[in-house]
């Protein structure tokens, strides 16, 4: 099966989650949400096309990660632009710190830099392999977070000192 078909569930799970957040915030029509969802799924498919490794699910995890951290994720921003939503408006509607990991067989998210990681979708890997033990999964994500968290620390320090 082409990667696109393989990624469908993961991508639609991720897009549905963002839609749920937007719908909960209110003020956006269903038609706009539907369009946003289609644009986002399309953008994710395009972005992940050569970065999807079902045999090594954690490979490329950082690349596939959707992230809002005082900066809007470009893919969400792009989909929002299609329905005329500005980044400013998105920041009002979505959590200011949101990380969404879209990996083969698992989609999970965290709100806030120190929030706990919640799994949205999980499926057993083909070939009867059980999913990775929790320890290795967390360390892989924690490591990724530590690698990326220094800018946000500076960001906080700057706001405090100003």
Q: What topology emerges from the helices and strands here?
A:
Blueprint: H1 3-25, H2 30-48, H3 61-64, E1 66-69, H4 74-82, H5 87-93, E2 97-103, E3 106-111, E4 118-122, H6 134-161
Antiparallel strand pairs: 1-2, 2-3, 3-4
InterPro entries: Anti_prolifrtn, BTG, BTG-like_sf
Domain Anti-proliferative protein: 94-113
Family: Belongs to the BTG family.
Number of domain modules: 1
Q: Reading side by side through the largest sheet, how are the strands ordered?
A: 1-2-3-4
H/E element order: HHHEHHEEEH
Model regions low in confidence, pLDDT < 50 over at least 5 residues: 133-162
**What characterizes the major β-sheet?**
4 strands, antiparallel
User: Considering DSSP H and I runs of 4 or more, what fraction of the residues is helical?
Assistant: 55-70%
CATH class membership: Alpha Beta
How many DSSP H or I helices?
A: 6
Q: On the 0-100 scale, what is the average pLDDT?
A: 82
Strand content: 5-15%
CA-to-CA gap between the ends?
Answer: 53 Å
CATH architecture: Alpha-Beta Complex
GO cellular component, one term: cytoplasm
Family: Belongs to the BTG family.
InterPro entries: Anti_prolifrtn, BTG, BTG-like_sf
Organism: Mesembrinibis cayennensis
Can you tell me about this structure?
The protein is an alpha+beta fold. It has a single domain (3-122), classed as Alpha-Beta Complex (Actin, Chain A, domain 4), CATH 3.90.640. Helices cover 56% and strands 14% of the residues. It is built from six helices and four strands; from the N terminus they run αααβααβββα. It has helices at 3-25, 30-48, 61-64, 74-82, 87-93, 134-161, and strands at residues 66-69, 97-103, 106-111, 118-122. The chain has a four-stranded antiparallel β-sheet. A hairpin with a 2-residue loop joins β2 (97-103) and β3 (106-111). α1 packs antiparallel against α2 and α2 (30-48) crosses α4. The longest helix has 28 residues, at 134-161. It is globular and about 45 Å long. The protein starts with a helix and ends with a helix. Pfam families: BTG. Residues 94-113 form the Anti-proliferative protein domain. InterPro entries: Anti_prolifrtn, BTG, BTG-like_sf.
């Amino acid at each position: 099966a082409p990667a696109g078909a393989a990624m469908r569930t993961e991508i639609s799970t991720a897009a549905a989650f963002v839609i749920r957040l937007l719908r909960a915030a209110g003020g956006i029509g269903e038609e706009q949400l539907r369009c946003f969802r289609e644009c986002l799924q399309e953008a994710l498919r395009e972005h992940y096309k050569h970065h999807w490794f079902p045999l090594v699910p954690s490979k490329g995890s950082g690349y596939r990660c959707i992230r809002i951290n005082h900066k809007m994720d470009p893919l969400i921003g792009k989909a929002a632009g299609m329905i005329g939503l500005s980044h400013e408006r998105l920041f009002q509607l979505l959590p200011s710190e949101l990380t969404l990991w879209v990996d083969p067989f698992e989609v999970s998210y965290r709100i806030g830099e120190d929030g706990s990681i919640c799994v949205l979708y999980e499926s057993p890997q083909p070939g009867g392999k059980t999913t990775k033990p929790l320890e290795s999964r967390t360390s892989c994500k924690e490591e990724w977070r530590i690698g990326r968290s220094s800018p946000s620390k500076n960001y906080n320090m700057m706001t405090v000192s100003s």
